[in-house]
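Illustration 12: polynucleotide 5'-hydroxyl-kinase.
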Amino acid sequence: MESNIGSNKAVYTTDVPEDRIKLVEMITRLEKPVVMFIGDVDSGKTTALTFVANELINLGYRVGIVDSDLGQKGILPPATVSLGIVEENFPSLSAVEPYMHYFIGITTPAQYIGETVVGVKRLVDVARSMADVVLIDTTGFVTGPGFDLKRLKIEAVRPDLVVFIQSTGEREHSIEELMAVSSPLAEAVLLKRSERVRPYSHEERRAIRAAKWRTYFSGSSPVLVDLSTLRVSGTSMFSGRSLTAEEREIFERLHDWVVLAGWKDKEVYTIVKADSSRRPYNRFVIKAIDFEMLSNLLVGFIDELGFCLGLGILKWPRLSEGLLEVLTPLGPEELSRAVEVRFGRIRVTEMGEELALLRRDDL
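Figure caption equivalent — predicted structure in token form:
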């Protein structure tokens, strides 16, 4: 599968519809513009962005690319919003060297709309100061919560130009609605859907993403993360005081749990447990986390400005000791700049096997 698909759907080609060429001309008439690309799944928006970026580079532009397509990322790794600054032609976004990331921690933004919007806005602000033009790639998520995500991105970023790709069916209506919403805030242009675009199955998308996970985590090494030196975010664990021995015994007896770690914050108990019991418990007072959820969980290492230095995979949480055994491609110098470790919501192996997507409130 992987050898047939490769790890990129969008590659640089000059065999494009005429309206893409006119779009480049339009962009060159703007002063340091920010351009956002919006389209549904397999609409060709990343291919259009790749063409525009390369053509602008041919004209001498320094181009900033903000890749916010969390699940089909070109600029690695997945589950982040990433910024690349390019001055030379590139065949696909995966060839763009990342300059900076913002951690989301999952490959779909449905439950993380706020974080995704903040990540795009922050990276666009950085790109504005470094590039002649900023291009923003987005997910194909345009209905339901995806509609709100695109609307909020437009409101937060206030791009000079929003490029929409034609769609069909229900998504055609969503694109029309988004164009109407964006019109008071930014100039909009509608591109034809390229006849060369082909749909990708769920299995193909998963295989492409698996290849990207493998590429990112190749050459990774295990590190021991001491949580006494780092803040923890993205989870209710480690918040408040540790459980007393008496409290642990009570929870184990009442619920038939093996309590591996626990904390009390105000009136809420967070319990990490192993059990096969399905006894009901008061979810307003107890947040119970199955230990299995932590296995191969994606985590991000965050710097003092809130940007993501890189990712890791949680291999063994030694919770009672305040230690995490994490597999990561980051070296000692990069890790030394981390002030926080943030828990994501996808369980994935270094070989690219996605084990589970968690809900936001699971941890």
